[in-house]
């Protein structure tokens, strides 16, 4: 990853770097790797995330189709 510092404006470059890291999911990954996660806990977390995504898609689809 590369950030260009223009006119010695390090603060702006830092903001851009943080935004890129956030978009890439690096902060989330660091948080997850802070402690060991058992494989069963990982499966449960990923399954819960999939359920949340599916429910969200269903809500959006229902809203778009005018079912509500």
UniProtKB/TrEMBL annotation:
Residues 36-68 are annotated as: Disordered. Residues 37-49 have a biased composition (Basic and acidic residues). It comes from Sphingobium algorifonticola. GO terms for cellular component: ribonucleoprotein complex; ribosome. The keyword Lipoprotein does not apply. Residues 50-59 have a biased composition (Basic residues). The lineage of its organism: Bacteria, Pseudomonadati, Pseudomonadota, Alphaproteobacteria, Sphingomonadales. It comes from the Bacteria. One of its GO terms (biological process) is translation. Gene3D superfamilies: Ribosomal protein S8. Keywords: Ribonucleoprotein, Ribosomal protein. InterPro entries: Ribosomal_bS21, Ribosomal_bS21_CS, Ribosomal_bS21_sf. GO terms for molecular function: structural constituent of ribosome. This is Small ribosomal subunit protein bS21. Belongs to the bacterial ribosomal protein bS21 family.
């Amino acid at each position: 990853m590369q950030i260009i510092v223009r006119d010695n404006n390090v603060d702006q470059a830092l903001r851009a770097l943080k935004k890129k890291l956030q978009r890439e999911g690096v902060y989330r990954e660091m948080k997850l790797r802070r402690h060991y996660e058992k494989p069963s806990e990982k499966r449960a977390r990923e399954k819960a995330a999939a359920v949340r995504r599916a429910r969200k898609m269903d809500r959006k689809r229902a809203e778009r189709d005018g079912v509500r």
